Amino acid sequence: MPTSPPRSLVVIGLLLMISAVALNPWTVAGLVGVAQFRNPWVLGTIVAGEIALGVWGYCLPRRPWARTLLFAAIPSLICYFLIECVAVLLIFRQEPDWFREQRVQTALFMADPVIGFKFRPHLRGQEFAWGGGAQRHVVDTDELGFRNVGHDYSKARVFAIGDSFVFGSGATREESAVGQAGTVLGEEVLGLGVPGYEPSQYEIVLDQLLGRYRPSVVAVCVFVNDIRAPTPPADYAFGQRTFEKRFEAYSLRHRTLAFHLLRRYLQRGGARFQVASNGITLFERTAVDLDYFRQHHELSAEALIERLIRKAQQHGVQLVLFTLPSKESAYREDYVRLFGHAQDLEIEEQAYQRLLALGKRKGITAVDLTPTFRQAGGHLYFDLDSHWNAAGNALAGKVMANTIRDLLPHD
Predict the structure, then answer these.
(1) Residues 238 and 334 in one domain
(2) Which ranges in 33-128 belong to alpha helices (H)?
(3) Bridge partners (DSSP) listed for residue 274
(4) Beta strands, E only, 99-153
(5) pTM (global) more than 0.85
(6) Comparing C-alpha atoms, which of 339, 334, 321 is closest to residue 379?
(7) What gap in Å lies between CA 345 and CA 288, rounded to an integer?
(8) Contacting residues for 219 by C-beta, under 8 A, at least 6 apart
(9) Distance CA 138, CA 171 (A)
(10) Does residue 343 share a domain with residue 227?
(11) Which of 29, 56, 91 is the last residue of a domain?
(12) Of 108, 160, 235, 400, which sits 20 to 30 A from 40 (CA to CA)?
């Protein structure tokens, strides 16, 4: 009669199988703070490891080779524990720059159950730097959490809605595209831009704006990272813990060797870059969703833009749509020469052309800034960042102002 395996082996095998289920690729990504897998081989490796761990756990009480493997692994686990102690106590004691830059945003942002997150109101002189200090800006916000301190919402005729490009990352409020547009127009242009916002949040901002004010023109600015399936607004109501975790303190978990190795491994394939002829760094992967057309995400994205247009028209407000080129698209010739393809750029271009056609069908003004930026050339973006520098903000502000001027009522 066969003997039953020791209960300890059964328990260990069960724990291994539970670990195989719990430590799936998405759980691992969440533990190390990586939003998505950028390399399919990385995803495949983790899935294969998960399957191997589960098989090992299942076979442990039943197969001699599994028990032999367990006993052989014990010395390795002891060595790994000693290495982790050295890493935690000596190597990774100091908070890395990328983590510090991320965590410091707790002073700028707050969770919001309606829109997910927003700037804290009444900020004054709050400096934010990123890229090792290469880019920085000072944030002042009004009572609504926007960068319009000292401006009268009730008297403004022009508002701009968008993400970090409308906010003016790396620029003062006056240097931003919105500030430059106001200077060219000779009147206030109020920016309702927040870094990280997407079209679903643009809609919430528009609803809040039209519920309180009656501007003449609202400009909606779409960037390449908006070329993806919109996030359902209901998801923002459950995002507070996720938001807080994004800015958590540098803890023991972040100091482990496993954390740093896994983070670097999961991010493989996301940082290939080359330097263009004008000295600006271009990245092979832009923020565009490669599955945008394959998964028919354009249908939901365009339906959202169509809702924005309809809501503005119902309130007697003229909506103008601006599509903003990625740095890689602005220097298209350099990009193709350096990387040998234009996959990301073609998706961006096709998506923008569809938005322009949508605007034409709905009777609104829609302008793509890509041709203007390609024709201008020169340094229009920061070197290691995707945002406009002073020249890029000035160029965008001029195009926006000249477009909006023709839409404003003249007394």
Answers:
(1) yes
(2) 40-59, 64-86, 97-103
(3) 282
(4) 109-112, 116-119, 126-130, 135-139
(5) no
(6) 334
(7) 8
(8) 158, 159, 160, 161, 319, 320, 321, 322, 400, 404
(9) 8
(10) yes
(11) 91
(12) 235
